[in-house]
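Repro case for the chain-ordering regression, as requested:
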Amino acid sequence: MSDDRKFDEALAELRAGYNPPPETPVAEMWTVVRAGLPVGQGTPVRSLDEARSRRSRTPHRSFGWAVAAAAVLMFGVGIGRMTAPVAPDESTVASEPDRSLLMMAAADHLGQSESFLTVVRTEARVGTLDPEMVGWARGLLMQTRLFLDVTDRGAQPAFTELMEDLELILAQVVSVAEGGQADPDRTRTELDLALRGLEDREVMTRIQAASAPTLAGT
Amino acid sequence: MAGDERAYQAIYEANVDRIYRLAYRMAGDDDLAKDFTQEAFLRAFSRLDQFRGDAAFSTWLHSIAVSVSLNGLRKVDRHRKRERSLEDAAPVASRNRQLDPGVRDRLNEAVDTLSEIYRTVFLMHDLEGYSHGEIAETLGVAEGTSKARLFRARAKLRDALGEEMQEYVR
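-- result from build under test --
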């Protein structure tokens, strides 16, 4: 066996055995981060020590609808140039801090989707799909669906359409990944089909177009 | 504030897994990894006005997280003193029939003793799957620098393994 092969095996061993992260304690850490958030306009974010000391006094909220709630607010103020101009309803217009944060959340989702699809396109050429991609795809799929659940389709047709196309492609990738990778030719074919939809629908271009004004805050 | 909190939470949820995983890889300790992760988010949230939008928010957040982790590790210097018990190593051994436990420990020590700049790139690229582009943006270096550091890190690991490279595969 060559040294390169041995070294690759050593790397694989390290990947599995060098400080392998346990499941992320999402909720536990959030209780501290949340306790450090500013309590009102103009108040500072607290230090970690201060946040810890406040944690016990801060009730925990569930996570499930975080992205959806962000999406509701985000769509309330209108995001990017994809949205049709509508008269703002004062009851739904978010404050400036809301607006910038929510735009970041949307930009983040689109940016991660773009990165993911770029990697998938690369892997499709060789007919492989890294098992770690499945978790990534599932997470993006869940967030996409949350955005879809709360989108006002009539008011946000372009954004809705983009999310629907993204949902379809992500679902296909998850399906391919979950189906196993015993046959590289089949994997390549199925990924090709999913990616053909990506190209035909110009999803990447639309994501980039949506991300740019979102990040710029326009 | 309620809307703000939901927005903060959405950002947190979207990024926390990758940040924590990286912090854990760097620290090898759950308490430290949690500290670094929480500190990174709080610092990022306190400096939102400094985020210029010329990079992805997640990249900016990763830069803060890596900086927090490296500074934290310098303080505790735990990564250089980390000890791995045989009990901890046992599950790893069962996943790979080919590595001798002694070699595995030597390999772990070799990663521990990599200098900071090499170790960070190695952990991000080879263990956590970051691209050179992501690493370059996170660390504020050129992509070529990231590649060069990875090359050097791997070379140092090969050197550290030395003769075991010839021996450990049964």
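Ordering looks correct now. The CA atoms of residues 34 and 51 of chain A lie 8 Å apart.
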